[in-house]
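Hi, here's the filled form for the chain we discussed.

Project: internal
Contact: R.S.
Residues: 363
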Amino acid sequence: MTGTPLGTASGSPLRVGLVGYGLAGSVFHAPLIAATEGLALDTVVTSNPERRQQARAEFPDVRLAATPDELFGRADELDLIVVASPNKTHVPLATTALKAGLPVVVDKPVAGTAAEARELAALAEEHGLLLSVFQNRRWDNDFLTLRKLLDEGALGDVLRFESRFERWRPKPKGGWRESGDPAEIGGLLYDLGSHVVDQALALFGPAASVYAETDIRRPGAETDDDTFIALTHANGVRSHLYVSATTAQLGPRFRVLGSTAGYVKYGLDPQEAALRDGLRPGPDWGVEPESLWGRVGSCESPVTGGGRPEPTLPGDYPAYYAAVAKALLEGATNPVTAREAAAALDVLEAAGRSAREKVTVTL
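And the returned structure, exactly as it came back:
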């Protein structure tokens, strides 16, 4: 549900309040909002002095608020709230924004449970407001390329989808993302797992069963840092999903095996690294060198390789906020709904249960 299109005076852009200016807020949301026609970054909420200074340096015209309450105190001056604060704050902040009559974008995971996500979705529907979830990895270059190949039937019937989001971080970094406190909703299952599960469901539809293994491998780590999730989709496709901070040798980002051909792609989409380096969307955004293209085809010999190079489509994170703006201004489709996010949380919850009880969970 998109809600009623918003009217703006003299075509002025929608005023966005961004809650949180850590990694998600400063690297992803703020630059993408500022680059989107029809949106304007109006206010950043952070009490951290260094982050306040950073926000003002990067966006000289931005207003600053120390707390969400300060932001909501002038809700009538805003048109959209973006929640990019720690996971445990997503539900209460989104609830407050919706009850204040404001559309909301929430970073993933939208909530700690599928039930909470569906309650938020119902609240947004009750108020006729947009509630969208920032699943930016649907606009990764490899995901867009694979979707194109599937649309073309280039692989035949897909039998197995392998997706890896792996890192080599032998020492924990600390912070709430690696906290063992369940209230923080930390760990890789809910962090990177939110991405790989969402991609699998977006590509191959609902899951019928879930099996998972979650481990704490690193000395001093408090929550899962090496996790495997196996999905059997309702259409018979099997997805094998790996998220890890303990991978000394990285596997392919995607390996997709079909009845007539396969697709193998190494390397992460370049957009996050570009944003971290201070680059901003513009010409040639999201383009990767030919040396990183994946390959499509079959292996005719008992060695790896084979097939032809497949040009990687440019990654396009700006498309997410462009779609949000269009949904708000024109009533177009919500790019990622809370109910879609709830379906992914069903899988994550089932994965947690599977790992704890050493069972396969039927959905």
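Let me know if anything looks off before we file it.
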